[in-house]
Amino acid sequence: MQKPNLQILGLSFSIVIAAMSFQVAPSTVMGIIRELNLLNFTQAMLLANAPAFTSLFIMLPVGRFLNTRNPIRWSLSVSILLALVSALLLFMASYPFMLSLRFLGGLATAPAYIIGSQLPLVAFQPEHRNRFSAIQTLASPIGTILATQTGGMIASRFGHTLVYIVPLLFSFIAIIFAIKLWGAKLPEIEKPAQKKVFLPSVKTMLMAIIWALFSGATAGAFINTSTEIGIFDGLARPVASLGPLFLMVPSFFISPWVGSMLDKKTRRGNMLIVAGLAMTLSILILPIGKPLWFVGSILLGLSASLIPPVVFSSPGKFEPRHNMAYSLSIINLFGTIGLIASTPLVGTIRDATQSWPATMIAVSVFCFAISLIGLAFAKEHE
Questions:
Q1: Residues 350-368: pLDDT tens digits?
Q2: What share of the chain is helix, strand, coil (3-state, %, to 5)?
Q3: CA quadruple 143, 145, 150, 155: dihedral positive or negative?
Q4: What is the mean pLDDT of the segment spanning 18-45?
Q5: So what's the pLDDT on residue 195?
Q6: pTM over 0.85
Q7: CATH 1.20.1250.20 holds for 2-180
Q8: How far apart are the C-alpha atoms of 233 and 363, rounded to whole Å?
Q9: For residues 85 and 92, which has the higher predicted lDDT (pLDDT)?
Q10: Residue 217 CB partners (closer than 8 Å, separation 6+)
Q11: What is the DSSP letter of 74?
């Protein structure tokens, strides 16, 4: 039984790495793309966020569709589509083609995120779900790092379109896993007797709000501003650009531990409260000076590592098996909304105040709200 489980985890990992690396692929070469295609910042942002915009429209229908379908079977078609789009983007350098293909790629990334999160919840026994779900959440930071570092390095030497070699590679890996696991038996996903919309529980909706706040504070605000704040504090740009790594690397060590603690009945609310308060403090001290920029970035990475395992394992506790995919689609949708909404909001606040400390005070409200919502779970025994 161990071998199929590891293969399922491999499929879950590879399909999310492919999707995330596709999503962030243009970020490291956006300057080159803008220069070659004479783009303004609005056009560049549209290109970067095109898959996310597609996800906004299809995430919920896809989640409902996957509720009672075998995620392994559908991972094959999703991976093939993502591989085809990534392969085409290797040869498409003009803006209209890139934009169209990235919108098309959103048809694959949306179900990829859902399937990747769904697999640990439906494939493993309840006593191990939190642990494997927590491990699976590492796929997103791995995909981000591979695309921005490895893909960016390849693209800088051989052409900016080669940044899509990373999602192409992991799409092929996902295809191989999906083919090998085609006949694997998963616990039965019961089809409901009546066809109707199954609204997630209130607790799942609260987790979705937490994920929106988290995505807005980290992916939307910190990743987009940490370099500029570091420069404001007096750091050199190469050093200040390490902020996203400080955010993501701690999760490799902390997230599996969080999953194990949840399997041992640790309360989710306690983790949310602690994480939210620590994130609030870390955001507030970022623009105060060089030493505190490092302290804040590292503390943010440590505290933020607690959130994804708590959020993405929650449908396994709060939802029936036939509603997990739909619940995960809502969580992912809220995260996308938080990401898309926070980026212009933070920019507007910065433009209006001309102050990084004032801007970070606004961002810290997102983090503090996570702690407040965590109170709703604090008295619950896992």
A1: 888 888 899 999 999 999 9
A2: 85, 0, 15
A3: positive
A4: 77
A5: 52
A6: no
A7: yes
A8: 18
A9: 85
A10: 279, 283, 342, 363, 366, 367
A11: H
For residue 306, what is the DSSP state? T
* Residues 102-159: tens digit of each pLDDT: 999 999 999 999 999 888 887 777 667 777 888 888 888 888 888 877 766 777 677 7
Helices (H), 25-40: 30-37
Calculate ∠ Cα 142-148-151, nearest 5°. Answer: 95
Q: What CA–CA distance (Å, rounded) separates 230 from 251?
A: 22
Structure tokens at 219: 């992916």
As a whole number of angstroms, the distance between CA 204 and CA 202 comes to 5
CA 160 – CA 45 distance, rounded (Å)? 17
Report pLDDT for 382.
46
**Which residue spans of the chain are classified as CATH 1.20.1250.20?**
2-180, 202-378
Q: pLDDT at residue 189 above 70?
A: no
Residues 6+ apart with CB under 8 A from 375: 269, 273
Angle at Cα 211 formed by Cα 320 and Cα 371, nearest 5°?
105
Q: Give the contacts of 70 (CB within 8 A, at least 6 positions apart).
A: 186, 189
| Token code pair at residue 283 | 């955001």
Per the model's pLDDT, the better-predicted residue between 5 and 213 turns out to be: 213
| 245: helix, strand or coil | helix
The overall average pLDDT reported for the chain is 84
Calpha distance 374→128 (Å, rounded): 23
pLDDT at 3: 42
User: What's the token pair of residue 95?
Assistant: 């803006």
pLDDT of residue 176: 95
Tokens encoding 311: 């959020």
Nearest residue to 140 via CA among 311, 301, 317, 308: 308
Q: Which two tokens stand for residue 101?
A: 């293909």
Residue 191 has pLDDT above 60, yes or no: no
Tell the CATH superfamily of the 202-378 domain: MFS general substrate transporter like domains (1.20.1250.20)
Report CA torsion sign: 253, 255, 260, 264: positive
| Of 261, 275, 274, nearest in space to 305 by CA | 275
